[in-house]
Design the sequence.
C-alpha cells in the first residue's frame, strides 16, 4: 500500500471550517472566530486533502514513502482567492514605468523621458501614473508630456483604469481633435478654453479612444504576461483569481482568451482563473448577450475547470480618484460635479436583466452611492422578473460597493446580493477619498463592520494592478481602515484579522462558485494552501507590535508553486 502523502505538522492550521464570516457568528457556531477550527497538522496526496487534525492523528497515516515536514510553528491557511483582479493586465503592466512615487510631476516627467530614450525610435511610450501623492495632484497634460517627450507618442494609463493622459503625437495618431465627440458614460475628453483637447481623457473606457492607434500586443506577448502574472500571484499566496472585464484596456477579448488557453495548456499558469468578460465586449446593449457556454466554447474542454466562464463584468461608474465615481451629491473638492454614470438607470437595468436571463453571474462595478443605488434598482428588477431569490441564487455581485449608507446596506441584504470589495484601496487612497468627499461622507467608505452585521456575503479582492494586491496587505488594510496618513475613515468599521482572512478565502470562494473545492481546509477539498510565517489572526499581527505575516510557500493542487515547504 502506498503512502505517498505530504504531511505538514508542528504548526497551526486555520481551517476556515465550521465558521461564519464574522467572529460573533462563528462563536455562536462553536468556533473561536471567523478563521474557524484550529488544527496542528494536515496531510494531502495529489490534489486533495486527506486528513486534518492533531499531530498525532495525522502523523499516524504517514508511511515510509511519505514526505513529512515540520512547520516549526508556521501557519497554514487556505490558499487566497482574489475574485476581482486583472492578471493579464498586471503581466503586461509589469514591463511599464509607473510614475507617482516622485514628489512632483516634474520629477515624474524626468523618469518618463529617461524611459523613452531606451525605446526603439518608432515605439509608443506606454506607462502608468498615479497623481494622488504629488504636491500638485493633477493629471499630466499634452503640454507637460510634449515638453518632456515631443518625438514619440506617449500614453499614460491611470492606475485606476479610469483615465489616460497623452501627448500631441498620440492625439494626432488617434485622430482626436476639437471635433471628436465625448461618449456619455464611456469617456469625456478634457478641453481647454479654445476647445482643444488637453490630452486628458477620463471615463471607464478612456483607453478605447486610442485603442486603434496603439500597436496591438502579440499572442506570444500576452501569453508571457499571463505566466508572469501567475508567478506574482503565487508569491502572494493566491491560488485562484478572476480576470475582470476581460478584453478591456487595449486587449481584444479573443486575443485574451487565446493567451489564457495557451498559458494554461503549457503548464505555465498554475492558478484557476475565472474568465470574466466585460459585458460591453460581448455585444451592443440592444442585442441579447451570448451565454457563458457560448464564450466558454473558446476554451478546450480539458481546460474549462481551470479557466471557468460564469461571470461577466458591467460598469455603472468610474473611480473616486479620478472623480468619475457617480455620486448623489457634489464632490467636496469639485462643486457642481457628481461624476459619470456609464449608462442611464433604464439602460443599466436592461443590461443586468439581459445578462441574468442569459445565465451570467452579473458583477457590476459601482463605487459612488448613486451608482450603487442604480445597481440595486437593477437587481430589484431581476428579483421582480424572476422571483424566488433570483439575485442570491445567481450570486450577483456589486464590485467595490464603496460608498454605502444604511439604506443601501439594508437593500443589498434583503436581495441577497454579494459585495466584492478591495480593502487596499483605502490604504492607497483613503486620504484622497477624504479630500473628494469630506470627512462625513468618507466615513461611509468600505463599511466592513456594518456589512458583516447585516449578514451580507462579502468577498475581498484586490483589483490588482490598481494596487499591489497581496492578500496579506489587504488583510492589514481592512484591520486598519486608514489612508496613507494613518487617519482612519471610520474606526467603527474596522474588522478583525480573522474576519478579513475569511473574506479572502471562504467568502471569496463562495463569490467565485468555488466553495466546493477551495476556501477551507477539510478532507476532500483541494490541496491549495498558503503557508505563512505567523498568524494573521493573532493579537498585534497588524499593529506594528510584532513582525507581520509573510507568505513562505504556496501549494496549488498539491504542488509547490512558490517557496519551499522545507
Sequence:
Amino acid at each position: 500500500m502506498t503512502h505517498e502523502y505530504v504531511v505538514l505538522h508542528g504548526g497551526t492550521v486555520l481551517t476556515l471550517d465550521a465558521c461564519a464570516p464574522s467572529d460573533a457568528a462563528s462563536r455562536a457556531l462553536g468556533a473561536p472566530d471567523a478563521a474557524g477550527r484550529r488544527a496542528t497538522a494536515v496531510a494531502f496526496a495529489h490534489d486533495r486533502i486527506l486528513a486534518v487534525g492533531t499531530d498525532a492523528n495525522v502523523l499516524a497515516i504517514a508511511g515510509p514513502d511519505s514526505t513529512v515536514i515540520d512547520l516549526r510553528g508556521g501557519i497554514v491557511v487556505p490558499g487566497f482567492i482574489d475574485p476581482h483582479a486583472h492578471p493579464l493586465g498586471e503581466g503586461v503592466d509589469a514591463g511599464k514605468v509607473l510614475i507617482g512615487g516622485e514628489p512632483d510631476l516634474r520629477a515624474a516627467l524626468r523618469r518618463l523621458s529617461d524611459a523613452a530614450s531606451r525605446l526603439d525610435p518608432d515605439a509608443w511610450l506606454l506607462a502608468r501614473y498615479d497623481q494622488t501623492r504629488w504636491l500638485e495632484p493633477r493629471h499630466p497634460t499634452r503640454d507637460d508630456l510634449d515638453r518632456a517627450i515631443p518625438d514619440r507618442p506617449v500614453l499614460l494609463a491611470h492606475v485606476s483604469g479610469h483615465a489616460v493622459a497623452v501627448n500631441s503625437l498620440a492625439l494626432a495618431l488617434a485622430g482626436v481633435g476639437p471635433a471628436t465627440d465625448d461618449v456619455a458614460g464611456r469617456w469625456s475628453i478634457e478641453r481647454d478654453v479654445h476647445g482643444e483637447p488637453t490630452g486628458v481623457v477620463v471615463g471607464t473606457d478612456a483607453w478605447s479612444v486610442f485603442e486603434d492607434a496603439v500597436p496591438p500586443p502579440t499572442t506570444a506577448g500576452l501569453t508571457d504576461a499571463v505566466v508572469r502574472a501567475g508567478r506574482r500571484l503565487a508569491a502572494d499566496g493566491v491560488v485562484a483569481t478572476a480576470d475582470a472585464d476581460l478584453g478591456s484596456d487595449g486587449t481584444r477579448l479573443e486575443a485574451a482568451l487565446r493567451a489564457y488557453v495557451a498559458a494554461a495548456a503549457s503548464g505555465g499558469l498554475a492558478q484557476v482563473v475565472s474568465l470574466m468578460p466585460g459585458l460591453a465586449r460581448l455585444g451592443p446593449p440592444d442585442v441579447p448577450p451570448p451565454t457563458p457556454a457560448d464564450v466558454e466554447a473558446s476554451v478546450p474542454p480539458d481546460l474549462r475547470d481551470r479557466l471557468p466562464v460564469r461571470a461577466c463584468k458591467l460598469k455603472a461608474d468610474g473611480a473616486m480618484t479620478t472623480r468619475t465615481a457617480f455620486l448623489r451629491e457634489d464632490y467636496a473638492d469639485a462643486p457642481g460635479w457628481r461624476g459619470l454614470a456609464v449608462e442611464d438607470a433604464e439602460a443599466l437595468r436592461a443590461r443586468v436583466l439581459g445578462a441574468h436571463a442569459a445565465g451570467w453571474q452579473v458583477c457590476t462595478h459601482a463605487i459612488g452611492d448613486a451608482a450603487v443605488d442604480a445597481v440595486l434598482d437593477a437587481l430589484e428588477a431581476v428579483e421582480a422578473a424572476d422571483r424566488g431569490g433570483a439575485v442570491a441564487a445567481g450570486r450577483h455581485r456589486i464590485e467595490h460597493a464603496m460608498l454605502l449608507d444604511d439604506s443601501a446596506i439594508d437593500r443589498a441584504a434583503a436581495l441577497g446580493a454579494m459585495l466584492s470589495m478591495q480593502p487596499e484601496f483605502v490604504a492607497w487612497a483613503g486620504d484622497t477619498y477624504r479630500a473628494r468627499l469630506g470627512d462625513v461622507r468618507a466615513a461611509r467608505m468600505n463599511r466592513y463592520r456594518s456589512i458583516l452585521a447585516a449578514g451580507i456575503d462579502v468577498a475581498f479582492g484586490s483589483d490588482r494592478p490598481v494596487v499591489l494586491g497581496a492578500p496579506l496587505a489587504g488583510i492589514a488594510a481592512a484591520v486598519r481602515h486608514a489612508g496613507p496618513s494613518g487617519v482612519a475613515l471610520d474606526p467603527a468599521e474596522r474588522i478583525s484579522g480573522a474576519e478579513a482572512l475569511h473574506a479572502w478565502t471562504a467568502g471569496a470562494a463562495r463569490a467565485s462558485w468555488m466553495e466546493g473545492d477551495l476556501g477551507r481546509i477539510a478532507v476532500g477539498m483541494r490541496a491549495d494552501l498558503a503557508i505563512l510565517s505567523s498568524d494573521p489572526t493573532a493579537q498585534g499581527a497588524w499593529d506594528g507590535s510584532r513582525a507581520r505575516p509573510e507568505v513562505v510557500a504556496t501549494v496549488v493542487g498539491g504542488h509547490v508553486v512558490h517557496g519551499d515547504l522545507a
